[in-house]
Amino acid sequence: MAPPPQFQRSSSPSPSQPSGKSEISDLKLQLRQLAGSRAPGADDAKRELFKKVISHMTVGVDVSSLFSEMVMCSATSDIVLKKMCYLYVGNYAKGNPDLALLTINFLQRDCRDEDPMIRGLALRSLCSLRVTNLVEYLVGPLGSGLKDPNAYVRTVAAMGVLKLYHISASACVDADFPSMLKRLMLNDPDSQVVANCLSSLQEIWSAEANTSEEAAREREALLSKPLVYHLLNRIKEFNEWAQCLILDLISNYIPSDNDEIFDIMNLLEDRLQHANGAVVLGTIKVFLHLTLSMADVHQQVYERIKAPLLTLMSSGSPEQSYAVLSHLHLLVMRAPVLFSSDYKHFYCQYSEPSYVKKLKLEMLTAIANESNTFEIVTELCEYAANVDVSIAREAIRAVGKIALQQFDVNAIVDRLLQFLEMEKDYVTAETLVLVKDLLRKYPQWSHDCIAVVGNISSKNVQEPKAKSALIWMLGEYSQDMPEAPYILENLVDNWDDEHSSEVRLHLLTAVMKCFFKRPPETQNALGAALAAGLADFRQDVHDRALFYYRLLQYDESTAERVVNPPKQAVSVFADTQSSELKDRIFDEFNSLSVIYQKPSYMFTGKEHRGLTDISEELGNLSVEAHPAAEALPAQIYEANDVDLLLSTSEKEEVRGPVNNSSAYRAPDYDSTTAALVSSQVPLEADLSIPGLPAYNPQVSSAIDDLLGLGLSVAPTPAPPPLALNPKAALDPGSFQRKWSQLAISSSQEFCIEPRAVVALATPQTLLRHMQGHHIQCIASGGQPPSFKFFFYAQRAGQPPSFFLVECLVNSSSARAQVKIKADDGAAAGDFSALFQAALSKFGE
Predict the structure, then answer these.
(1) Are 65 and 23 in contact (CB under 8 A)?
(2) N or C: which end of the chain has fewer CB within 10 A?
(3) Position 133 in a domain
(4) In contact, 807 and 817? CB cutoff 8 Å
(5) Measured between alpha carbons, how far is 14 from 21 in angstroms, rounded to an integer?
(6) Residue 75 neighbours by CB distance under 10 Å
(7) In Å, what is the CA distance from 156 to each residue of 83, 94, 148, 468?
(8) 724: three-class secondary structure by DSSP
(9) Name one GO biological process term (predicted).
């Protein structure tokens, strides 16, 4: 009898492209019709329908509405149908615990099936439901499974106990399953059952050891001598996964004497020839940990494990090679001499991926010594022309590292200088950095290196680290490089084109060094560099320029001792990884710690995780908003009124800085407060430094003249006879109306003093300074190097006319633009001169 025609439809949609609820309803109807059918071909029809259901489920279509029909159709002896049904049930049981209850009867029935494969599959599916309310239904089948005559069922049951423990630890312990697992582990003839029992017991007793002394004793019993030898004697029966599990257990075992160590190593000797890399690495870990206290034997272990590791490295996939290389790298760092004769194994092959090549280059660097340096450096120099730029860079760095190890320095320096003639930007950049380090360690090579470096144009060096290295050499050896002052001067002239703080810092220092060695040629460059550095919006650049400027103000000889002292050669460069970290990584041999080259706590502990890993935790935090009443008066003032003071175009210009937390705000000071503050806070120039001469304004002026820092500043005009009201008041609304109604009476641009640029690092000081001259600030904004201020003042006497000022200050160019509007246009000129005079005294 043929199956019903509705189950032979050929025009149905593709399973990967469900047509919606209509197809789900169609599937439900067909499944219901086939439920309980024993007609010939019914199982084949069920298979096709089950495949469609599983396909829909895989692409994310919700087919949970078919739960009842799928369970009803599971009453069959077809194992393929059983597998698909178990897969479906396991997927939807956790999210639908009420529906999962429907599966208990047929799963328990299948756990008693005659076919051991079905018993095992049913037990695995039953334990995979992970529904707390169904725990009571798991205990019986699990107990029967642990006593099942078939090894496959016992294997599944051993892992099922662990699943039960994670669902309900108390139910697992109360049923005495750990004891049953222990008996199975010691007595079961099947190796896979033993392995599963061991894995489950390790996890259960490790978790229970924190609360139960008995569990702690049982966990220690896993490392007892009888159990360890029991597992070692049967290790050949286990598969690769189980062997790795046993080897990891044995690596924590502490033998009672040296004879026991040799017995264990003899039993595991043949595991070093295993085809599986994980087994080989696990065996090596055991050997290394057992012999840590035996120095001679430990060295022999290195010799013994070298050949298996080199064989594994050269065979298999690139991923396996990288994993083995990472472990070899760790061993090479601990005992480079033992691998020095095998350096050719670490030569790079053209077809290898870059991550493997990079690791090999690090190992070549580590094993270089007097006997093999020439061959290794020759090979590395070939890689410098590699099409892979990253590998070429690493090869050049490796050559430099070998030179820093004091092996064949003469030949290596010559090869590095030849790299500079290759006329490749990245080669030149990496070589310059290495030449700088070499000169720090071997100053005697300065003449040979400087002769070549002096021919390099700074325009051809764009990378910040390389340009910094070149600038360092120009400053350190300016007496040997005729063009050094002029190259530095050109770099200072292009200050604004250089965006790297590192380069600007090195440039400031190099110009200072060159000034003390060749003052006439560097005088102008130093003045320009200090002016640019003082106006720099980067805090570290500004601070260093200010530091140098003040050193020169106080005493030139002291400045020279600080900036350009006699230097000693660097003997040892700092290691990027401490010995303690390396020991921690070695303790975690054969784990991800070796691949990541960091201890496990650094990538598993919460405090070391990145923002991406803890984004969910951060998402639960709330930021409490502060009400306006709790804000500072100045903040409320600016938030409410600053937009009222500006025109539409000006609002767009200032709104960004105003909303920025770094914008500067005008505090509500009056003239008496300003006078009190100025009387209590001494100027920076009045401070004295122990051990240095007292500050002398005449010396400061001489330094400014010498370096050209004051040449571009307009002379201070004499204050005109215009008196201002010290208690002038103007509200923001009136200021805005006047500003929109009045025409510009005066507009000018002028330079400001370098000391004013320095003081402008804290714009609030300018507001206090101007208030001391009876000129009030009503709004301010901006961020370095551009600032915008709105001032107002009132003429004393009659008529009491107002002056409104817009002042734009650029600390980078040391210039100020001033627009003045006045009720009395005839007096605008006098006020402009008074305003400029007040601004010229800022910073004194």
Answers:
(1) no
(2) N
(3) no
(4) yes
(5) 15
(6) 15
(7) 15, 20, 10, 64
(8) strand
(9) vesicle-mediated transport
pTM score of the predicted model: 0.64
Size of the chain, expressed as the number of residues it contains: 844
**Alpha helices, DSSP H only, in 236-372?**
240-250, 258-268, 277-290, 295-314, 318-334, 354-367
Bridge partner list, 792: 776, 804
Tokens at 85, concatenated: 């049904």
Task: Show which of 567, 590, 607 is a domain's final residue.
Answer: 567
**Which pLDDT score is estimated for 629?**
35
Residue 396 scores a pLDDT above 80:
yes
Number of domains in the chain: 2
pLDDT in tens, 415-448: 888 888 787 888 888 888 888 888 888 888 777 7
CA dist 487 → 104, 243, 511 (Å): 85, 66, 10
Tens digit of each residue's pLDDT (9 = 90 or more) over 300-343: 999 999 999 998 888 878 898 999 999 999 999 888 888 888 88
Q: Give the pLDDT band (50/70/90) at residue 279.
A: very high
Give the residues across from 787 on adjacent strands: 782, 809
Within a domain: 440: no
Q: Is 470 among the domain residues?
A: yes
End-of-domain residue from the set 544, 567, 590: 567
In terms of DSSP bridges, do strands 746-751 and 815-822 run parallel, antiparallel, or are they unpaired? Answer: antiparallel
Bridge partners of residue 806, in order along the sequence: 790, 819
Kindly report which listed range (72-81, 186-195, 274-283, 668-677) carries the lowest average pLDDT score.
668-677
User: Would 390 be classed as within a structural domain?
Assistant: no
pLDDT computed for residue 282 by the predictor? 94
CATH value at residue 767: 3.30.310.10
Residue-wise pLDDT for 156-193, tens only, equals 999 999 999 998 999 999 999 999 999 999 999 999 99
Q: CA–CA separation, 813 vs 335, rounded Å?
A: 58
Tokens of residue 653, six digits: 């210009």
Instruction: Give the chain's count of helices (H) and strands (E).
Output: 43, 5
Which residues is 804 bridged to in the sheet?
792, 821
- Read off φ and ψ for residue 38, nearest 5 degrees: -115, 20
Q: Specify the pLDDT at position 577.
A: 63
- 795/831 Cα distance (integer angstroms): 9
With a cut of 90, say whether residue 148 has pLDDT above it. Answer: yes
Q: What CA–CA distance (Å, rounded) separates 739 from 207?
A: 75
> Average pLDDT over the chain, rounded to whole?
80
- The β-bridge relationship of strands 786-794 and 776-783 is antiparallel
Range of the domain at 524: 457-567
